[in-house]
Amino acid sequence: MISEKPRSSLNLMLPWLLGVFFGLVILGNLASRITFEDKAEEFALGKETSTYWATDGEIPIHCSTPNDGNLCIDAYLESSLQNEIVLWLGNSQLHVINQMQPQDINAVEILHQSLKNAHRYVMAFSYPNASLQQNYVTFDYIFPSGGLK
After folding, report:
1. DSSP assignment, residue 5?
2. Where are the strands (E) in 4-147, listed by range?
3. How confident is the model at residue 3 (pLDDT cuts 50, 70, 90)?
4. In principle, which of 94, 102, 137, 148 could form an S-S bond with 90, CB 3.0–4.6 Å?
């Protein structure tokens, strides 16, 4: 005959408590492997993948966050090349290079250099896992009411 004895609260919560405990132990172990130099936006990049932020000499033309976005905008406004602007919005694929060699540059820098003689200034913004909404907000920030700030 099977006993109809009710289970105690501790018996009911034990699987949940053990799951939380082991989850915290595993999370603590993983968190301890992260160093101060690690960049959260680069966690998903493979070992053979490097980030590359395009420049024109010392002038930044490729920015990654709203925090450094004004560097690219100010560089454009201060440059003698206030030509027609080409804005390239993208995600992390725009600022990474696989198996990077010392002479490698990314597509933003290649396009910027090739359009310079055509009186066009290429500026790029790329965020890790960028969404269309993030790109829209970036575009609206750079071109409020249709013109550069």
Report:
1. P
2. 49-51, 55-56, 59-60, 62-63, 84-90, 96-98, 120-126
3. low
4. 94
Enclosing domain of residue 131: 49-146
Query: How many domains does one find in the chain?
Result: 1
Query: By CB neighbour count within 10 A (0-12 exposed, 13-18 middle, 19+ buried), where does 122 fall?
Result: buried
Residue 93 and residue 130: Cα distance in Å, rounded?
10
Within a domain: residue 34? no
Cα angle 126, 131, 137; round to 5: 75
The predicted-structure confidence for 75-88, as pLDDT tens digits, reads as follows: 888 876 667 888 88
Full strand arrangement of the beta sheet holding 120-126: 62-63, 120-126, 84-90
Q: Which helix (H) or strand (E) holds 25?
A: helix 9-32
